[in-house]
Design a protein that fits this description.
CATH class of chain A: Alpha Beta
Strand order of the largest sheet of chain A: 3-4-2-1-5-6-7-13-8
CATH topology of chain A: Stationary-phase Survival Protein Sure Homolog, Chain: A
Number of helices of chain A: 7
Radius of gyration of chain A: 19 Å
Structural class of chain A: alpha/beta
CATH superfamily of chain A: Survival protein SurE-like phosphatase/nucleotidase
Largest sheet of chain A: 9 strands, mixed
Order of helices and strands of chain A: EHEEEHEHHEHEEEEEEHEH
Oligomer: homodimer
Number of domains of chain A: 1
Chain lengths: 258, 258
């Protein structure tokens, strides 16, 4: 007799976002679910943790079999609190998302959604971040569901390498029907910032961060290419940031001091 | 005739921290310096950027030849604002730190100091994050200076691979005399969280994030081992988070949907 897995669900768009509601409904098919998610938007918070203030964690009403808790912190805080304070035991799986907006390419570094999955990988718990390449909270996630189910099934059946989590991105609905799933690498690209500079009523300048994504990578094996081709992209993401291939180069430098 | 390099200096401990003052004094030896740094502490902010509010950027008095600006955002915000709004041209070098506290091993993921260096690498600008393995702002950084100088000299002379920045950690002063510089990989380890749970005067629980670092890696080639042996650790850090070696594994999975 197999025990049902214990699944933690979190996100960065806050506990009320449609994306996490969809993910909770899928997670309930696979195991016993705890939702521990931010009480407000945490987009773009990267791997931030809260050190300069304390955290609140409050149980809230649930619309299903899952237990639900809102947290006054970041997605990484939510994972830490869930594991150490809220859950009855260490979870078997951490699911983050479904994010409203793509976390392909360089977005993985800024993403609160992916920070929760990375935090899971640091804890050596199998973790997946899901994102839909559409910002509006009204965007349908119906077509994504069967692909999300098969990815979760695979992770539960096969596990993930230690220190690796998955960054899953789903194309926008204008790409339907989706062509399938493609395992990819992170595309090389960057946000070209264009600050919107304004003057406040007292004559002082202030700045809104805006920007435009630029792709520097024509590879057919990237997440951006997969999304463009109508495939769900799956990138294995490492918590080891070492550029191993650069170690030999640096070892040739002359580090003598005067 | 060689033009003096344009150097951006930032950090996460705020513009008034002794660590950034030391780094500015070293940077002035190498080029024309702009300081664009947070107006308050930003430790543990990971690669957070500010999307939900606007940013202030204010020129402040300088105690040397450098120009100085304080910013109401994260280290990543500082780099973006510096490049796009403050500096007269793209910098030749970005220096972040000197952080008060180690950013070795898994700390690289949480570190605001390193997020500034990573943001530089995303911009294809040579970038280095420096940290001292001591928290007190009173800790001496004198012995670190010659090593910081030779690392900066090497980066200016040799450049860095595209998309790679350096995570430099200096042992605590109780390790003096330092034995030299060692190029390393990021040690595998994690913070074992021990939340400090308290009850507020109104009977409601709240939580302080605390924790203890655990090393899961006995390799002699890690940054943690280097620091323990009295060496300055230099880890090349990648902005490509793909776990490339896991792609073949995932390609063997069965992703059929029902």
């Amino acid at each position: 007799m197999t025990k049902r897995p214990l699944i933690l669900v979190t996100n960065d768009d806050s506990i009320i976002a449609p994306g996490i509601r969809t993910l909770v409904s899928i997670a309930n098919e696979f195991g016993d679910v705890y939702v521990v998610a931010p009480d407000g938007p945490q987009s773009g918070k990267g791997h931030a943790i809260t050190l300069d203030q304390s955290l609140r964690c409050t149980e809230v009403a649930s619309d299903g079999p899952q237990k639900e808790f809102k947290v006054s912190g970041t997605p990484a805080d939510c994972v830490k609190l869930a594991i150490n304070v809220v859950l009855p035991r260490r979870p078997d799986l951490i699911l983050s998302g479904i994010n409203h907006g793509s976390n392909a390419s360089v977005n993985v570094i800024y993403s609160g959604t992916m920070s929760a999955a990375v935090e899971g990988a640091l804890e050596r718990i199998h973790s997946i971040g899901f994102s839909l390449d559409e910002f509006p909270w009204t965007a349908s996630m119906e077509a994504a569901k069967p692909f999300i189910r098969t990815i979760i099934s695979n992770v539960l059946a096969n596990g993930l390498p230690s220190g690796v989590c998955l960054n899953v991105n789903v194309p926008a609905n204008d790409q339907l029907p989706y062509k399938g799933i493609r395992v990819c690498r992170q595309a090389i690209g960057n946000w070209v910032e264009e600050f919107d500079s304004r003057i406040d009523p007292y004559g002082r300048p202030y700045y809104w961060l805006t920007g435009k994504y630029e792709l520097y990578d024509q590879g057919a094996d990237t997440d951006i290419a997969a999304l463009k081709d109508g495939y769900i992209s799956v990138v294995p993401v490492s918590v080891d940031l070492t550029a191993h291939e650069s170690i030999a180069t640096l070892n040739q430098w002359n580090f003598e001091t005067e």
